[in-house]
Design brief:
There is one protein chain. The protein is mainly α and 339 residues long. It folds into two domains: 29 residues, no CATH class; 223 residues, MetI-like (MetI-like fold). It is built from 13 helices and no strands. The two termini are 32 Å apart.
């Protein structure tokens, strides 16, 4: 008994050391990746025509050259590109994201105010997509080459082909304008103060349509991917053995085959985080959802590149963090995999 406990302790300590080494390895890989992303983003954005001063002049209608020169010097836009890049990278290492030209506020404050709304939208959308997509994929594989399989395949194809902005507009027309079941936009009802429970319900009502809109494309992807992975897994030798023992088909699908069939889906979730962030820009703009996607759109319109660079920096951190979590889940699903 004592030897068994000692062995268990040794294995637990070894797992902790492995996890610590993994974190150090991933952090070592993440730092140069984030730095490279931000340098590339800075060069691309600052090479584009127009800047914050041009946007301000456009809002004002007209301005004299002295005002333009003064604002250009105040924003630091009169410096050379290498000098501005060096200042930006130096500020980045101190987590100073600068100030917004348009909002006249620290970029970090603007981002953290809206980060929660974007994470809520992203996590709920990806959660809904995984649950529905995996369920439809398993069902399609279990009833392979039947009418149900063809119907699910057709639905997945339609969802994959429909543009996100069009889906959002159609949902607004149907459920907000015609049926009046859900609000047309925003994250909460202005002026409503009925306690925490009703506030949570109000947020969920506002979240429903954006969440469904953003998740439909990924539901289609995960359905097709899960179907293919499940069909491959159901032909493995250990599945045939389970069938020979008389295990019910439902138990075979959900208890024996699901864990291995999920591996490709888990991999794609990590890869598609960037696409999810890109989709949130469209969805948040259509529904007026106060997240980072809508802030990014406003920053592009106003040429407020400091805010846009801050959003890109935070997005890269989120994507790298999710990919680290995906690696851990991948290793949990298949202990043979070395991460």
């Amino acid at each position: 008994m004592a030897n068994a406990l000692s062995l268990e302790k040794v294995l637990r300590n070894r797992a902790r050391r492995r996890f610590g080494l993994l974190l150090l390895k991933r952090l070592g890989e993440a730092l140069p990746t984030v730095l490279g992303i931000m340098v590339l983003n800075f060069l691309l954005l600052n090479s584009a025509p127009g800047n914050a001063v041009d946007a301000l002049v456009g809002i004002m209608g007209a301005s004299d050259p002295e005002f333009v020169a003064r604002m250009t010097a105040q924003f630091g836009l009169d410096r050379s590109m290498p000098e501005r890049l060096a200042i930006y990278i130096g500020n980045l290492f101190t987590f100073n994201l600068g100030n917004s030209y348009y909002f006249n506020r620290p970029v970090a404050d603007l981002i953290f105010e809206r980060l929660g709304a974007t994470l809520l939208l992203m996590l709920s959308s990806i959660g809904l997509a995984v649950v529905v997509g995996v369920t439809l994929g398993i069902t399609s594989a279990r009833y392979f080459n039947t009418l149900l399989d063809r119907v699910i395949g057709l639905i997945a194809l339609l969802l994959y082909a429909m543009p996100v902005f069009w889906v959002g507009l159609m949902l607004i027309i149907l459920f907000s304008v015609k049926l009046e079941w859900f609000p047309m936009g925003g994250a909460s009802t202005i002026g409503a103060d009925n306690g925490p429970f009703y506030a949570a319900v109000d947020v969920l009502r506002h979240l429903a349509l954006p969440m469904i809109t953003l998740s439909l494309y990924f539901i289609a992807t995960y359905t097709r991917l899960m179907r293919a992975s499940m069909l491959e897994t159901l032909h493995k030798d250990y599945i045939r053995t389970a069938r020979a023992k008389g295990v019910p088909e439902r138990a075979i699908a959900y208890r024996h085959a699901l864990r291995n069939a999920l591996l490709p889906v888990v991999t794609v979730i990590g890869v598609q985080m960037g696409a999810l962030l890109g989709g949130s820009v469209i969805v948040e703009t259509v529904f007026g959802w106060p997240g980072l996607g809508r802030l990014a759109y406003e920053s592009v319109v106003q040429r407020d590149f400091n805010v846009l660079l801050g959003i890109l920096f935070m997005s890269s951190i989120v994507v790298l963090t999710v990919n680290l979590l995906i690696d851990l889940v991948y290793a949990k699903l298949d202990p043979r995999i070395e991460i």
